[in-house]
Amino acid sequence: MFDSIMKELFLQAQDWESETLMPLKKGKRYELKVTYKATFKACPHCHKSKFHKHGTMPRKVQLTEYLGFPCFLIIAIQRYKCCFCGKVSTPELPESLVSKGTKDSVLLKKEIILKLKSKQSISEAARDLKVSPYSFYRLLNQMPTKDHFSFLTEVLCIDEFKATGDCKGKMAFIAMDGQTHKLVSLLDDRRLEHLVTYFLKFPRQVRLKVKFHVVQQLTRAFNQLRVQEMKQFDTHSPQYRHLKYYWNYLFKNFDDCSENRFYSRSLRQWTSSHDLVLQLKAYTPVLDEAWEVLQAALTAFRKHDDQKFFEIIDELKEELLPETFVKKFQFLASKKASIRLALHTPYSNGCVEGMNNKIKALKRVAFGFRRFSNFKKRIILMN
């Protein structure tokens, strides 16, 4: 085992001496005893080059787990006494094996970083590697989190997500590169005044490189209207129950709805996705009209037909639809230049939406995070 460690970490064989080739079990752990006998070329005090051995100094380094138990490298470091000045010196262990002042080997730190990149809680990952959770937090604390304000990507995809309780705002802010899908910014506050202050830290010539960003609110406007219409029914009525349980069918592209029938326990009948959508949207005239508008707008957006898209928005009538719904759609008309640019370029907000799914999965398996700083570092490693 030690021979493979030496090859992987490029250690000099002449500087090491091992009592056994494989670690021996001591209680609930394995130990591999070795001696580190590297010599000095010159005394660090008087710069003379004549020494004699002067005992050993013990050092314990934890390796990766072995056969389901923690494994330690018990190192006896050979000490040397200068024949001229009498000062005793001890060689430093190679940085490729272990960093100065730490007990975790480089091999173990690599495994810890791989665990931090995965969607796994620190306590569970620590049990897998047979180490303390503090080994994970020590590495996280070494990660730099300072933002650099010298570069911004041309295509910026932005979104918000629910983070930790110590965030200044209720939601955190995330920005990604629309071309390379790399993380650009993670902020603990998504409020406009905070974002303006943050992005003003970038030089003006850097900010001018950003070409556009698009925020869609079509489905949000329709979903809010669906909830309003649903609350008009009694909570025990079938209409309320159906609109609550099958809401996601209303957001599907109607042309993609399947006609394959399945048995619905809530409806107590056989139905299909196609028939279910027709039934749900017919519960109220307002919901029916809003669904038709949503489908038409999304179809125009998918086909990159900006003229048809804005025609649908301009033709909305408050006599048929609620004022709040109409205003949310009409807000998009004030962003015609950006939306037209988005429709005629190959970029989308898909990368940041996918990252948000990873963030939610990480937060769920970790049972939440107390501090945004640790949450931010895990997200950066995961990206």
Structural class: alpha+beta
Overall outline: elongated
Which segments are poorly predicted (pLDDT under 50) over 5 or more consecutive residues? Answer: none
Q: What oligomeric assembly is this protein in?
A: single chain
Terminal CA distance reads 33 Å
Number of domains: 3
Radius of gyration using CA atoms only:
31 Å
Largest sheet composition: 6 strands, mixed
Domain Transposase IS204/IS1001/IS1096/IS1165 DDE: 211-379
Domain Transposase IS204/IS1001/IS1096/IS1165 zinc-finger: 42-85
Protein name: ISL3 family transposase
Question: What tags apply to this protein structure?
Answer:
6-stranded mixed beta sheet; 383 residues; alpha+beta; single chain; 40% helix; 11 strands; 3-stranded antiparallel beta sheet; 3 domains; 15 helices
Question: Layout of helices and strands, plus pairs?
Answer:
Layout (H helix, E strand, L loop, with lengths): L1 H8 L6 E3 L5 E3 L2 E8 L14 E12 L8 E12 L5 E2 L16 H12 L4 H8 L3 H10 L13 E6 L10 E6 L5 E5 L4 H8 L4 H4 L10 H13 L7 H8 L16 E3 L4 E3 L1 H9 L3 H18 L3 H9 L8 H11 L2 H8 L6 H16 L6 H11 L1
Parallel strand pairs: 3-5
Antiparallel strand pairs: 1-3, 2-3, 4-5, 5-6, 7-8, 8-9, 10-11
